[in-house]
Amino acid sequence: MRNISISLVVFAITFLLLFIFALVSLIILGGKKTKDTIQLETDSRAKKQSNTNNAMSTHNRIFRSRRNKIILGLCGGLAEYFNIDPALTRIGAVLLALISGGVVILVYLVCGIIIPSEPENA
Description:
66% of the residues lie in helices and 0% in strands. The protein has 122 residues and is mainly α.
């Protein structure tokens, strides 16, 4: 019975921290980009990708970033995919690693092996 209550408290604290992180992210990003700006960036990225002669389509795919890379480039790649600041994804990853007790670190390493690196011409 005591283990269940401890688990519920840990879950509640984790949920609360993630909720606070989401709110802070929305506040920080609130005025930076409008929906039209994001749509224009997405369209220009799609046009740029359609101009390349790749056999494999890179549209709507997650890659490890080459430009926003600190360790493996996963946080930078997620930030580029969702058009957000890479620092926010890194802060979120660190918070999740602290909360989960290191499980996120294992997931990060596995994703670093599975997710391909960004193509050179992108």
